[in-house]
Amino acid sequence: MATLNVAGRIALGREGLPVDAVGRGNIWLEEDYGPRTVQIAQEIMLKSLLGTDPGELELVVFDYNLRGVAAPFAGLQADHLLRVLITEKELGDYCVKLEQHIHGVHTVIQGRQRSLLDFRRATGKRVESYILVVITADMYMLNDHTKELMSILMAAGPAAGVTFLIVSPTPDDASVMFLSNKCHVITTNTSLTPNVSANTIIDSCADLAERFSKSTMDPVLFEDVCDTSPQAMWTGNSSDGVTFDVGMYGLETTRVTIGSNREQLHNALITGAVGQGKSNLIAVILHSLCQRYSPRELELYLLDFKEGVTLRQYANIDHQDYLPHVRALGLESDVEFGMAVLQHLYAVYQRRMRLFKRHSCQNIKQYRESTGAVVSRIVVVIDEFQMMLDDKSMARDVVAMLSKSTRLFRAAGIHFILASQTIASGIELSKDSDIFAQTPIRIAHRNSIRESEATLGLGNTAAADLHMGQAIVNLDYGAIASNRKVAVAWADDAVLSRLRRNWWIHARDFTRPPYVYDGTKVIRLDAASAEMLATRGGRPELFVGERISVGGSSLKLDFGEDSGRNMAVFGAGEEQFDDADIDVDEVTGIGPGATDDASDADADAQDEEHVNNAIGLLQNAAIALALRNTKGNAQFIVCDLTDADAAKRNDMNGFYQFMESIGFPVQRVEGKALGAVVNDLADSLTSRTADDDLVYLIGFGLDKVADMPKSFGKLVKDGPAKGVHVLGWWMKTSVFESHVGFGNNGYFDIKIMLRLDEREVQRQLGPFTAWKPRANRALVADSTYLSEPVTVIPYTPVNLETRRRITSALFGY
Ligand SMILES: Nc1ncnc2c1ncn2[C@@H]1O[C@H](COP(=O)(O)OP(=O)(O)OP(=O)(O)O)[C@@H](O)[C@H]1O
């Protein structure tokens, strides 16, 4: 239970002069410009602070006369318990804020008590907080507008917890009497001997800051705002939107309904500086939704553009249970996955709208009401969504897609909650942009004035004055009058994880775990083994990697006996690192004395950071072609010109052994013998018959071939239609071009780009192809089967574990 101490009345000086203070009355201390006045003012400030619970009283000081009145209190600034105003303009602006603050306190009290002090006492709750405004100025010199505003504030302030301490001469001057007569006046003649020293103040402030940091926050509990009882679980119907809980506004629970046809609030924006409670709020929103609606009524798509730690626990990673409402989870999302989710939802939107139309309905609510069928609401939460705009080359497309999504998808019951630390710098998200216009729900945690205005609207700086765990909830596009300062509920994971487990137990039989996308995860060929083997014996196919999509399907490419079915991989397959100091044995874990049988040693040896994607692409292409070949009519000829280090790191030995173990021993060719092999293969083309084996000539690191015979051009041109295909990796496209010869570039249908210059990419794939090389990504073009290049997470080189899994899928052991 909260203690509610407040320095409503203090005793001043050695004489113990009683004065009404915090939440009760204003004080006018007549200024005589001597040290005593400052000391008395400081004593009032200190006693107000010490008599009130730590953190419950904020000091705001406008020391116009430079009396140094705030100096010993400086230790409070870090905790936002002291605010210093420097110019008269700042005082004027602050008075406007105070007006809003007092208005807000009145809305909370709703006339149920005469003052905040009485209201707190009656309810026993820490509703709102107190402010002591200290002004040292010759009040008659302030401008009339400020004085008029102050007169209103001084009259209304104390009842709303705002107290003024004015240190100014001549309280009986006609030009200021309308102010001083709202105060208890302490004149210069009052017999008062100050009894606190500057040292006492400094020490007391240090102590106060310490107590404040240790004080239990007395948070609003999740259970206080959301009915977590089993009876309340999944009782909600999402036909007309979904309602989530946020926290307490005074004595009321703040709930927000998103997607209702009546209120027309379809999307939300959440902002807040680092550590001010954004992640906590998202957890509160998600769990209150999941408690209220069953997975049939509500589906979630959750994307995190940061490290994705909070979302991890909603997936069945390292444990069995998962959050059954979630369809897709993006941990460490990237723009491509963000866009893939939006595309996926666009398809859902189109399907739903077609369905509604068939029943002559315009939106989800009408459809549900007229048919009685259940169609879920979909809520998409994108944390740090502004990071989707960081890549300038894609920002325009992302904004267009987000605008479309926030504008259209509502009719299909799809709503967005966009969260961000910072939006002020995003020009694309300026207040006039469509995304903002479609996002009436604004929730702002503490932030800079600029961010507050960016979230709530020009002039609405309320978020700059919040404490951690508080938020301004505004359901009217940020209109100042609609600000509500809400104490956000505290999402204690002990409580939430119990709920999640319970939901899972109830839903595991009719839900699937969410699809989890982790942009940094290493994916290997075994992820596709079921698919690869299901149609074994069918047309030859290459398995390249995982598409960036909801569901993460594999990208496979037909590799049958048709002209052009050759594959070229371009660019560095790994980040260049300075390997001069790196001991290969250390990197691979294979000691000098270790066996040459790398296949056994490799499992832990492949340093995932340093695997080579080009090598992986070729290895995996060969394995997929071999695995799917049930006739046993394929020859694999490999020329590996990579250095020994790369071969070891990417376990070429293990690869050869595996090919042999599945019935396709690899014929290995030295670099100097490659020309002869190429010549022979080219010569053999005319006499090849349908009974001849398919031939796959695979070259790793072909840039090293200085004297590629001219017949290579003939081979790539005429080979595929006769069952002879080339799969090669070149670092440089210029070397590739000189190898294939003039006019033969087009006989490589499949071109895969890794780390190489965008100009080189454009030379191969056309001037409008955008490609920024990144770790763990490849751009795949297939001039026959893909309408445009596709970004994939390429399968990395096979390791022991992958080979075991594939073997067991193949042979059942
Ligand atoms: N409503 C609340 N009540 C009590 N404590 C809270 C509340 N919200 C946040 N906190 C405290 O603040 C800490 C930071 O909160 P949170 O992680 O949600 O901030 P954030 O804004 O998401 O930060 P970041 O952007 O760094 O992830 C929490 O660990 C918690 O201790």
From TrEMBL:
Provide a Gene Ontology MF annotation, just one.
Answer: DNA binding
Q: Does the keyword Nucleotide-binding apply?
A: yes
Keyword Acetylation tagged: no
Tell me which residues make up the FtsK domain.
251-454
* Positions with a binding annotation for ATP: 272-279
Tell me the domain of life: Bacteria
Q: Name one Pfam family in it.
A: FtsK_SpoIIIE
> What does the UniProt keyword field contain?
ATP-binding, Nucleotide-binding
Q: Which PANTHER family match?
A: DNA TRANSLOCASE FTSK, SPORULATION PROTEIN RELATED
Recorded protein name is FtsK/SpoIIIE family protein
Species, as recorded: Bifidobacterium reuteri DSM 23975
